[in-house]
Write a structure and sequence with these properties.
alpha/beta, 9 helices, about 190 residues, Beta Polymerase, domain 2
Length: about 190
């Protein structure tokens, strides 16, 4: 793990009032092992590296881990609370204690384990604001790929699904400096 990149990530998010406000809203839900990941973090870094204004997010991916209530209905209730805070955002809440079933993986132990099964190393990053108002992050594959604009599959993700996903996302059109790898052992 590169602590310099971790500090840079935290500083970039701390300077972004929009992101900090969203982190506060999610923190105040007081969910167990709760983070915001994927495009929320990825787009911030890629946009800055491309000198772009904020790229619109498909949704705000909120993950948490609560094995005491892993029903989809519980996540929908949380989404309803979030819509009341900000109805202009598309909130997506997923309890990672059940997502292994949908994904055909072994049971995840926590959110860090869960995001290690996400498609790309650069997207397998999540952040949260703790109750001391400090930003924390998870990055099971580190932050190098994210900051170096390198898109490659995580070792745990199906390569065929990854290739289709990359094709459908059309990220190179939004962020032309990206280097996209299509194999697990690509460096």
């Amino acid at each position: 793990m590169n602590p310099k990149l971790g500090n840079e990530l935290i500083e970039k998010i701390e300077r972004d009032e929009w992101m900090v406000n969203i982190l506060k809203i999610v923190r105040d839900l007081k969910l167990n092992d709760c983070w915001i990941g994927a495009g929320f973090v990825r787009n911030k870094i890629w946009d800055e590296k491309h000198h772009k204004v904020r790229t619109e997010l498909n949704d705000i991916d909120i993950i948490h881990f609560d094995s005491s209530n892993s029903s989809k209905e519980y996540d929908l209730q949380i989404e309803e609370k979030l819509i009341k805070h900000n109805p202009n955002l598309k909130w997506s809440v997923k309890n990672q204690s059940r997502m292994h079933i949908r994904n055909g993986d072994k049971q995840y132990s926590d959110c860090n384990d869960a995001i290690s099964f996400w498609p790309e190393t650069a997207t397998s990053v999540a952040v949260r604001l703790n109750f001391n108002n400090n930003i924390e992050y998870l990055a099971p594959y580190g932050l190098d790929d994210l900051f170096n604009l390198l898109v490659k599959p995580t070792p745990k993700f199906d390569l065929n699904i990854y290739k289709t996903r990359i094709e459908n996302k059309r990220w190179k059109e939004k962020w032309p400096k990206l280097e996209i790898k299509t194999c697990h052992k690509c460096v």
